[in-house]
What we know:
With 300 residues, the protein is of the alpha/beta class. Helices cover 36% and strands 15% of the residues. Phosphoric acid mono(formamide)ester binds next to helix 2.
Amino acid sequence: xxxxxxxxxxxxxxxxxxxxxxxxxxxxxxxxxxxxxxxxxxxxxxxxxxxxxxxxxxxxxxxxxxxxxxxxxxxxxxxxxxxxxxxxxxxxxxxxxxxxxxxxxxxxxxxxxxxxxxxxxxxxxxxxxxxxxxxxxxxxxxxxxxxxxxxxxxxxxxxxxxxxxxxxxxxxxxxxxxxxxxxxxxxxxxxxxxxxxxxxxxxxxxxxxxxxxxxxxxxxxxxxxxxxxxxxxxxxxxxxxxxxxxxxxxxxxxxxxxxxxxxxxxxxxxxxxxxxxxxxxxxxxxxxxxxxxxxxxxxx
Length: 300
Ligand code: CP
């Protein structure tokens, strides 16, 4: 596959290949797979984990990185189109990792790029590399990707990570619980996709009720930057996970969160055996190393 834009572009076998490759790179780290490769890291929207784990991935595999972390300091500010920007950058690099606030920006960039484009998040649309590290983490904690019960909690409307992950797991016969305020419910188009595939999902408004039912509790932050402040205040703090809520949890339950968290997981959860979000974030390096190596046709 040349470009990594959207999870529905992947087959189940391709997802499994990235997960298996990430596991092998975590078990036996490599330092040579990207030697001589130059990767552009173009972030038009803020990021901590995605940008730095991509840059770490490249440098730990022997490659080098150029790029920017603030689109306002680029010639986009002077009116240059994304198409022109990508034509130029892709003429002297081996791959372009890009985050952009507009849905569809990564797909557009791929149409003008001479080298693979990897979507590091496009608006409220997709975050495919987060999904790859999530799948890797789910398999690492549960030993499989099939026949799991997962709850997605929080902002399911604007949270691009849950969109990508639900689409990926719809290839693996899982059961979903969607826990969200009405204003932040899973988008209709995604529920319709699940209906068409015959995937079971349950809408639920109680966080405490779903905890005993699931293997993975996937918490998310309300995406304050994507909607009106008055609306945000109405739903802020509605779903907060605390350490005293695990009384009836399964032993194998793991709490994931794409991070950053704001107030949806209290810090006392970090010390419970269920918290796995920091290891999940660390897994971003291995999943992105796997992806880069596979996209650039390196044998792992
Ligand atoms: N999970 C994630 O995308 O984090 P950043 O916004 O910090 O990259």
